[in-house]
Amino acid sequence: MRDALAEAPGTGSEPAVIVETSGSSGYPKSVVLPISALRASAEVTAERIGSGSWVLALEPTYVAGLQVLVRGILEGTMPAVIPPSFTAAQFLEAAAGIQAPRYTSLVPAQLTRLLDAATDAPGVADCLRGFAAILIGGQALPAAEADRAAALGIRIVRTYGSSETSGGCVYDGVPLAGVSVRVEEGEVQISGPVLAAGYLDDDERTAQAFVTDADGTRWYRTGDVGEFDGVLRVTGRRDNVIVSGGVNVSLDRVERVVRTVPGLQAAVVVPVADARWGEASVIVVEGDRAAADDALAEARRRVEREIGAPARPRDIVRVERMPLLPSGKPDRIRLRAQITTL
Known about the structure:
Blueprint: H1 2-7, E1 15-20, E2 30-34, H2 35-49, E3 53-56, H3 63-75, E4 80-81, H4 88-96, E5 102-106, H5 108-120, H6 122-129, E6 131-136, H7 143-151, E7 156-162, E8 167-171, E9 174-175, E10 180-184, E11 187-191, E12 198-199, H8 203-209, E13 210-212, E14 218-228, E15 232-237, E16 241-244, E17 247-250, H9 251-258, E18 268-274, E19 278-286, H10 292-306, E20 315-319, H11 332-341
Parallel strand pairs: 3-4, 3-5, 5-6, 6-7, 19-20
Antiparallel strand pairs: 1-2, 2-12, 7-8, 8-9, 10-11, 11-14, 13-14, 14-15, 16-17, 18-19
Helix pairs in contact: 2-3, 5-6
């Protein structure tokens, strides 16, 4: 792939890799990424945040990890690789082995682990401050974690994108060069040279996800709901909605409110069948059930105040370990299956 990327013209459409989507709320799909899309993504990333050496802390089978490799190939450097176990000590060792300016791409759970380590080990905070930028993607970064990073003087860049856009293509709400964003009937759509060719051996799904307008511009339908006025604000998923007592309830919105409750910052809200209301939701967190009743009562109060009574979560469920996808997102399909067996 090194030679192909180095020699690829800006408009080349030759397939380079096939990336499996995370499938957090649907069936996994095989995304075909052209050489030109990978190269365009790497180049506009460098244009936005600068060039340098990278720490690879994500699996290269995940698009964000793949793009770390691509950036290294195009810049003629070899990323420092961290084992999948990912510890603060491993991160420090990898960072020490590359030259500044340093960059890395993490999911929120990894950042949290490093911030926790920095509490007792000042060297971790010093290391993190030494990075020119730390890209955070895969899922939304909780506000509390962003505040912790800012207090330590760490430069966090929140990224938005997917396998279908060659990874992050909107940084801190602002599209990268050449990337356009629009909102059609509430849905966030993206165009630009970073788009995938489509899905492997799935013309029907490709036609549904990638549309061409009257001007000949090709757009990817993300399935996300949001607003865009020059800065993108994603508010949820179109398909993460339940009907509770005849009222449509966005579980993404419920989850955001629930995460403002102390002790529930990493909670996940999932749907369950309900004999009375048709559908309801439960809050899922890791650990034991200590103080669960108080947390549930407060979460229900806040959700009712912000959204309405039909949106109130029914219960809190504790799991020993939250199932995660390679992207670091909660595996909501596995989680729902676990909940039905509890």
